[in-house]
Amino acid sequence: MGNLRRTSERFDWNSLFAVRGGRELLYVVVASAVICAGVCGLTPPAHAGDVYRCVAADGSTVYSGTPCAANAQRVEVKGASSQPSTRGLGIEIRSASYVSELSGRALDVTAPMLARCPPGSNACMIKCDNDLAGDPAFGERKHCAVSYDCNAKTHEQRIEEGNGYGLFCPYQGHTSATLSDPTRSAPESRPANFAPSRTNQAVPRQSSGSVEVLEKRAFGATPGERLTFAAPLSEGGFVAATNIRGGASFVYRLSPDGTVLWRKPLAQHGVPRSGGKTANVGYWFGGGFDGLKGDVVRQIDAKGDISATQLISSPLSCAAEHNGSYIQIGTVDTLDEYFRMEVPSLSMTNAQGVRLWQKLIPFDQGRRIEEVPQQLLTCAGIGVTADQHILAAQQILVLPEVKSTDEFKREFGSGLHLRPATLLVALDLSGKEIRRLRHDDTTGGLLIPRPSGAVVIETSYGKPFVQPVTAVDGHIHIHTYDSWLSETTAPLVIQDSNLDVVNTALPTARGGILLVGCSGTTSNVFVRYVSSSKSITSLGSGEDLGYCGGSYWLAHAERENEEWLLAESPNRGSYLARIRFRD
């Protein structure tokens, strides 16, 4: 990204407020209470004093308990004393070190980690690299050791150099504080035909069924292997890939009974991030490899032998294969005309590595949009339907309406008013757009492709300091679309899913759908089953499947009421679990 993300920083601890510039990193201190203007919120004291907002010539902002300049504007602080305080809730990083594994030399990176993950956040992305504070030991393998509290419970997390890691620690029983900002206009409106339906919703009934973990075992043939990707197969089981940090990668084929049919090595320093089955009864894997200007696709036959390798210009972190061509979700952040924002893009590359087309989506409904930063570490979903329509989803941020370049720079630089949303796009194979939808005030958008369309799962979420334009309830919403992105049934709302976020899902042979995600109340992984009759099992979660923040994939097992969960967990490592569900 450009310099817009590096805004100035100004602190006045003698004032009521302190503001740190930068994406999603605004701190506001009100009578010793902290408001994180990212993914958390709290209620300030009922009798807060006057607060003034001043904007300097360089665009930086400072808040103070007294008029700080001639252009100072009074900001009203609204709160309700009847709401509980969130003090001690959410994420709080206690210490962080960037450590060489060979020499033991280390740098204290607590401060830059706190800048990326403010105290009280319920979700944030941190990355372990030299941008934190320099390189403690050039040429040596390093990692970050992070100690943090989640709702007052201490956790230790190791993050390998170069890797990003998502901390997730939601909590319930709070409402977001609201700053009435006189510089912002009235809440924006949007065309009715694009608004996600919040009426005529299907509410599932509580089921007498159950979900249980029958077995769980470590995955990987050698110590240090970490899952980087897995894809379910229509006949059951997975194709999957692992990597040993700084070295070899391997690809696996797992049968429906969980047996490893083969394990094949790939070239050194490669990290597969996508893949699946091809039309010729083989498999493909795509990902980045050191020294190459682009990603690489490897074709593998049914026996596991590598039969072809092709350099692809576009990233393959989130991609689908169709008749030898590859359709990719990505971003373009090098265009000055879009202020170097991370503009969502879709492209297709043929089997020879030639890009056939690329579609950029810098605007939607008159608003600038960008993909959530570092979202390419995950994949919101992409697939091709039976009638050859491309359906894709991206988690995005929507900028508010701005009237000048300076106003845009202020809004984009602070990130305070950027609205979380899910972008859904349908294209034909030539790249022509068929339809586009945007679901505002949502997080965790996930698209599960099906031959006839897709299932889209997201959590309704109201970001602090952003006036919702939809009815926000904090629940999981499940939408079913045909290949034209027309909704075929009323959305299903899971009423007891307070801030739960689904990480992966799998339609079952019985017509239901199995959900695996992060519990908003325990910060552990949960498993739930929604039957074809819209009944849903009670929340099944616990420490057996690990803490939130990992990567998860589901595939069919040999029995129709059982599925496999393949996981890379922050505290359980790589594992394979068999799950049974009962209607």
Q: Could you walk me through the main structural features you see in this protein, from its secondary elements to its overall organization?
A:
With 583 residues, the protein is mainly beta. The chain is built from two helices and 46 strands. The chain is globular and about 75 Å long. The chain has three domains: 3-83, no CATH class; 91-168, no CATH class; 192-218 and 313-582, 6 Propeller (Neuraminidase). Strands 29, 30, 31, 32, 33 and 34 form a six-stranded antiparallel beta sheet that branches. The longest helix has 10 residues, at 405-414. It is 3% helix and 47% strand. The chain starts with 8 loop residues before the first strand and ends with a strand.
